[in-house]
Each structure stands twice: as C-alpha cells, then as structure tokens.
Amino acid sequence: MDVFSKEKRSQVMSSIRSTDTKPEMIVRKYLHANGFRYGLHNQKLPGHPDIVLRKYQTIVFINGCFWHGHKGCRHYTVPKSNTSYWTAKVRRNVERDAENITKLKSKGWRVITIWECELKSDIRENTLANLVRMLHQKAVEYDTTAPHTIMAAENAAIYGSDD
Ligand SMILES: [Zn+2]
C-alpha cells in the first residue's frame, strides 16, 4: 500500500512539482557561475521551458523522474495505490513533453533534458560539465528520448548499464 492517502499523495506530488525546484536551482547556479545567461519559464514557448539560452539556441528542461516518467530510471516508481491513475497521468506528461520537444525543434531550438537523477550529488558535477560542453558544441544532435542521456556513459561506468 501507498504510505499516503490519495489526497495526501496529491499534495506531496504537487509540492514536488513547484516551479523553483531544487534541481533546477542547481543547474541555474552552475550555468550562471560559468557565465551563461538565460531566460526562465518562458510562457510563450511550448512546454514553458525552465531555462532558455537564446545565444545558444538551446532550451533546457529539468525533469523530475516521476512526473516526466523517466524511462528505465530507478527513481521512477509508480505509487502502489491508485497505480492506474498515476500511470495515466505520467503517460500524458510524457506525451506532452514529446510534443513540446517536437514543436521546439521545428522552431530551430535544440532541446536538452536533464533528469533529476542526473543531479544527484555523486554524479552532478559530471552532468553539469557535460551540459556546458554540449552548449559549446552547437551542432550536436541530442537524443532526448534515451534514458540517462547526459550521463549515459558515466552512469554505465558507475552503476553498470540499465539495459
Ligand atoms: Zn531518472
């Protein structure tokens, strides 16, 4: 059984969802400290991107592994009660994310998704360094659908492959 009632779970989940979440702040601070300037929560762009780096034609989403259904992630665990409700909800988010990314790409944006699990303290530095590296490599095509995209190699080295 879920440790929370349905109401409490909703409350817990929506508090996780709030705008200036800690993972996002980690990324913002790092970018800022490295001289990057960006816009925040752009309401005019599809998906209201967390971070918009116009100079680099790049958008960065910082996704919670639960809400955005991080495929293959050990941190994406569906609550054991109201399972179908949460599964459907997360599936809708995943579909919406994919649509938004398609729209953004068609407008010429490069889209980078950083997953919350990629910002855990032991791998955070690598993730952020890789992000900066990618920002400087303008032409790199980035596969946002793959799990642990930024950290794939590093994660595999640390934890073994998820496949
Ligand atoms: Zn994850």
Automatic annotation (TrEMBL):
UniProt xrefs under NCBIfam families: vsr
Enzyme class per UniProt: hydrolase
Organism for this UniProt entry: Paramuribaculum intestinale
Transmembrane parts of this sequence: none
GO biological process terms held by the UniProt record: mismatch repair
Protein name stated in the entry: Very short patch repair endonuclease
InterPro entries from the UniProt entry: DNA_mismatch_endonuc_vsr, Restrct_endonuc-II-like
Pfam families in alphabetical order: Vsr
Keywords assigned by UniProt, alphabetized: DNA damage, DNA repair, Endonuclease, Hydrolase, Nuclease
SUPFAM superfamilies: Restriction endonuclease-like
Catalytic activity, EC: 3.1.-.-
Gene Ontology MF, one: endonuclease activity
Primary role: May nick specific sequences that contain T:G mispairs resulting from m5C-deamination.
Family: Belongs to the vsr family.
